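Consider this today:
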Amino acid sequence: MLLIEKAEGVATVTLNRPEAMNAMSKALRAALDEAFVALDGDDSVRAVILTGAGERAFTAGLDLKELGSDPDGLGAANATTPAANPVRAIQQCRKPVIGAINGVAITGGFELALACDVLIASTNARFADTHARVGITPGWGLSQKLSRLIGIYRAKELSLSGNFLDAETACAWGLVNRVVAPDELMAAAGRLAGEMASIPLDMLIYYKRMIDDGFALPLGQALALEHERSSAWNAGVTPERVEQNRLEVLARGRRQ
């Protein structure tokens, strides 16, 4: 139900339940937790791609058939442990996670997409927050993240209607970084992941954390956090290292 491939510093994690629209069963959520713990601790991995099997769905969210037979199933919507909450499973990974959105990302699947650091969407991708139509409220962060990403009016339009958002409009609204043809999705995600993987691991982890921690703060506090973190990091950088990095950047630019 979960495939993991590693190559040249990049791990690709695939939700592999296409017959169920890659719905997140209890077992799949536990597997995601185990996978991201392992990838976070694997120094050979510097970037991760998360996608779904097939072209129909990234993930339709929680497995509603499974929840219907479990009296405590709806507790998953407000779970706080990474083994039960796939958003927290992803967030515990200190390395950049690229969401390659191959199909629909619905409700909990939408929340899973928002847990990624970068989103690249296939033209087949569509996003929908159907929490209100199902009769539950989001518990994995969507109600607060979405408005911060696309604006409160657009977020209300989506969440209070349950309507689908196509990939091109999602890109225009700033929800996804870019949209590509279905057969180009994994190549595009792989190129970006490879570029990230070329950065030293300690720098990737430190800089991602600085961005995320600052984004959660008011601007004044975020700027103070940047100053504190930047001063601590840059104090350990030597002029020789800066020159070496400069030459590497120039060489990379020539190759590109």
